[in-house]
Fold this protein.
Amino acid sequence: MLKINAIKIEITTVDGSYGFEHAFSKGLNIIRGNNSSGKSSLFQAVLYALGLEELLGGKNEKTMQSVLKDTVEYPDEVFHKIIQSQIYLEIENKSVVTIKRVIVSPSEDAKLIDVFYGALLTGTNKHLKRQSMFVHDKGSASNSIYGFHLFLANFLEWELPEVPNSQGQYTHLYLQQIAPSFIVEQKSGWADFFATMPYYGIKQASSRVIEFILNMDIFENQKKKQEIGYQSDMLKEKWKTSFIQLSNIARDTRFILQGVTDHPSIVNIDEICLLKERETDAVTIENEYLYLKHEMLKYDGEVRTVGENIELNEKRLEDLQNKLNLKSLQYDKISSDLLLGEQQINQYETQLLDVISDLNKNKAALKVVKLGGDINSEISKSICPTCHQQIEDTLLPQDVQQVPMRLEDNIKYLESEKKMLEKYIEGQKRIQKENQIRTNQLKDELTELRADIRRIKKDLISDSRMPSIAEIENRLNLQKKVEFLEKKIEEFEIQKLQIQLLSNTYSSILAQKSEIDGTYSKLDNKKIEELKLSFIRLLKEFKYESKPINTISLSLDDYMPLNQIDGEKYNIRFDSSASDFIRCLWAYYISLMLVSINYNGNHPNILMFDEPKQQDMSEEGFRNFLKELSEIPIGQVFVFASFENKDESFISVTNNIEYHLVKIEDKLIKPLF
Amino acid sequence: MKSLKCILDRNSLPMIHWAIDPAVNRALGLAIADEICVLTSAKKYKLLPKGVNLINKIEKDTSLFQNEKNNLKQIGKRITDEIVDDLTIKKQ
């Protein structure tokens, strides 16, 4: 809540002190004064003290009227030159502070604001702790020590949300952007919704402001989205580590990893396995381990002699030799495949580079054509500057009968070609990797086979009474292998569990994501609906007549009112008469405050309207407007109006309405005594 | 490009063939018609304000004409009128 308790304007001229001082009450305050009495100066002074003079279209003292910075005219035709002028504004939320800002001063800077911690104007204690702060400097919205707007945001208990700007970065919403939702200035404020909002490169700033004012969940969701994005990055890293570990086990054991990819996915732990392909089927690492263990156990007795093993060895030798031939053939084939694949990848990659460079050139050309449009070149519209006839988009002679492809088509074509090539390369690389593993596996098997054959041959020619060396070596090899596999299986199980955990995290992240994917929460929808109902109710109240009320609704994209006829949407501004559009603005700004009050939103619960009776509006609508304002349950409203400089019109529109009157008799700035 | 660098590096004229690409000529013709540049003498083109505007925009955008910009940077202002004259005017 922002409540303005009192204001004091202090002007020192060469001929003495002038100024204005007044305490405001809560509820409706009507500041009445004839044209050029200084009503707007008062309005502007409030904005200036809050550092919001950008709503008037500028910065610092140059936005102020001459009566506050050059010369005071009092009485008429008598001028007094100003030496120093400053504004005090006492504001209240949970606590009371008083702001002092100079407009002109021989010694102080207009960018400096003094904050007194206490009620300097209405209180009795004039010795208060004070602190100087800057406005409009780079740090004013983010520097925690000296930024006045940061102080003001804290004072209002506002946590300014981060919103995306046009550069794709995040920046805080600025106070000066929120202010137009409750302060409407007379010269340009009534031209459109949020007409005086300064531009800070924030995308769709008015929508963001409405979301903030109504405290919609959308910001919360955005924060959550960031958090989830962070978690998901972490998960990706961990997943990758685990995957690499798994691949390493597969590489060491010459098995093929199946059932898991290098990026997070929801996996079934039973599907993750290490396989080895054999001639006809495949075997898992666990089965291979059991088989080898079984083989090992076969040899539990004494080592037999060469003689005893002769028959067995001869048979095995033949088997092994057959196997060797088969594997050699396979090996030859796969290594030539490997070589061929390598070449193919190289070829694709060169092609891809060409396509990418072509694509960039075409995109650049398109940009240049657009630049040509910026400088108003006729060539960029494919029109000959001399004869104004159509020309082709080519530098070949114009009479060559060949229609060149349009740049946009070319880009599209190249982009799809690029995608296709990338897919090819990716696929090819995967095949290549599989082949590589298979080659290594075959290589190993071949070495092993040859070693076996050598041992058996050696056995066959040695003394038949000697113990069989082949058998001893076989036993040792088996034992080594079994031990190795046992260790690797253990590692594999650990990594599998890890992947299982990560997979669970991944699915919970996905669930969270889908939860916040919907743009609006239920509460948000309720708020938007209520904003719409309140807006329509007030339009009726204010005697809006341009369009039937039942065709009016709010856009879900930017929360702005629109007129909907047969499914076609029209901007309400173009579909309303000038005075009816002003009614729309009244209704909208009041509705924002009402909805925020109902849902405990971020509206400061203050409204300031400078000369809201624009155009030639009926008195009835205006009276209902003032009545509505006086009936807002909490907060404070300021209406600055001249009432056509007539007592009758003032009395007729304020009849039966509760308000606090600030009447400016002849001039705002008078001698101070 | 190679020939240009060659000229600059050796500071002398090698035997080179050169020709004007008809496409370049046509582009220059269009540019003159569009008031991007103007022909001030038989061999000199001068940018008009519209052209200066366009070039400034192109220079600012780093994604445009990367290779061309690099090449031109390497050459810099080292191709003098004299060199051009040497190339274009037949000597007895």
User: Anything to note?
Assistant: The first strand of chain B starts at residue 37 and ends at 39. The CA atoms of residues 82 and 88 of chain B lie 10 Å apart.
